[in-house]
């Protein structure tokens, strides 16, 4: 299934895209895509519910706002320097273990919402990433069983303010967490539709120019390794997001460096997971 959410901010409703391409409002199912939904086998229950209720579900217009594909989770765990070429472009050594950091869940927005350049920002940057959505509580999970804990995958743009992240001391989180810095979606695509998440093309364009063009097979630590590794240090709850890192082509790695300015248009996507489009605007 492809799950999505739609509607005005703070009024979002759950939807499903059928294999036919039809988009349905499944509000009558009675549950949004949150921790409780995944905890209580919501994916299976929704699929079963649709068998008898699909015909009664209203269609979702194509021009309605798409929200984050899941409701705000308990946490967004990000992985740094997880593509070899990205590590090289930032003059960083290839990590021996995954580099982990948090991104505030208040950064979460829809896939086509504007990205707001933060107050006093000079170095707002882009990062197309594969996001893993956790499907059930995961603690001390082995690599071999990691896929059993995944609900699906989504496109994530891990926006980053590099001066806040790298020049102001402390942890990366403060350069990663501004409002609108985590567009997620348009879909949560369930695992049955993504047979190999470790071999997906992903790309990003700035004002029509392709700057990132890679494949998840360049990840240093693959999907099951990341789920297992992170679960050794914290419990992952249903609905939690793991953002798996970005390939080469970020603004910080270009020569000369380039960062977002008002009016810039960022487009990105991942094979089978959909596309996003954001316009950069100034904070006001």
From TrEMBL:
<keyword id="KW-0479">Metal-binding</keyword>
<keyword id="KW-0378">Hydrolase</keyword>
<dbReference type="GO" id="GO:0016787">
    <property type="term" value="F:hydrolase activity"/>
</dbReference>
<dbReference type="InterPro" id="IPR036663">
    <property type="entry name" value="Fumarylacetoacetase_C_sf"/>
</dbReference>
<dbReference type="InterPro" id="IPR011234">
    <property type="entry name" value="Fumarylacetoacetase-like_C"/>
</dbReference>
<dbReference type="Pfam" id="PF01557">
    <property type="entry name" value="FAA_hydrolase"/>
</dbReference>
<protein>
    <submittedName>
        <fullName>Fumarylacetoacetate hydrolase family protein</fullName>
    </submittedName>
</protein>
<comment type="similarity">
    <text>Belongs to the FAH family.</text>
</comment>
<dbReference type="InterPro" id="IPR051121">
    <property type="entry name" value="FAH"/>
</dbReference>
<feature type="domain" description="Fumarylacetoacetase-like C-terminal">
    <location>
        <begin position="75"/>
        <end position="279"/>
    </location>
</feature>
């Amino acid at each position: 299934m492809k799950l999505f959410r739609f509607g005005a901010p703070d009024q979002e409703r759950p939807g499903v895209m059928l294999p036919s391409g039809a988009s349905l409002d499944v509000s009558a199912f009675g549950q949004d895509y949150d921790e409780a939904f995944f905890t209580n086998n919501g994916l299976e229950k929704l699929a079963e519910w649709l068998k008898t209720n699909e015909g009664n579900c209203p269609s979702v217009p194509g021009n309605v706002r798409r929200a984050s594909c899941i409701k705000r989770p308990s946490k967004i765990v990000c992985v740094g320097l997880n593509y070899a070429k990205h590590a090289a472009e930032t003059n960083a050594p290839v990590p021996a273990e995954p580099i982990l950091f948090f991104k505030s869940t208040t950064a979460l927005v829809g896939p086509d919402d504007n990205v707001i350049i933060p107050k006093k920002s000079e170095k707002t940057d882009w990062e197309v990433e594969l996001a893993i959505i956790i499907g059930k509580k995961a603690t001390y999970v082995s690599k071999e069983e990691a896929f059993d804990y995944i609900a699906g995958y989504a496109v994530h743009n891990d926006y980053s303010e590099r001066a806040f992240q790298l020049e102001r001391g402390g942890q990366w989180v403060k350069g990663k967490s501004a409002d609108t810095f985590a567009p997620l979606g348009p879909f949560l695509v369930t695992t049955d539709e993504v047979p190999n998440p470790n071999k997906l093309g992903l790309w990003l364009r700035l004002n029509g120019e392709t700057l990132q063009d890679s494949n998840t097979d360049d990840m240093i630590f693959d999907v099951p390794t990341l789920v297992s590794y992170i679960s050794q240090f914290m419990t992952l709850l249903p609905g939690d997001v793991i953002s798996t890192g970005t390939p080469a082509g970020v603004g910080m790695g270009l020569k000369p460096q380039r960062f977002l300015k008002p009016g810039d248009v960022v487009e990105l996507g991942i094979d089978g997971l959909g596309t996003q489009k954001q316009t950069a605007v100034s904070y006001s």
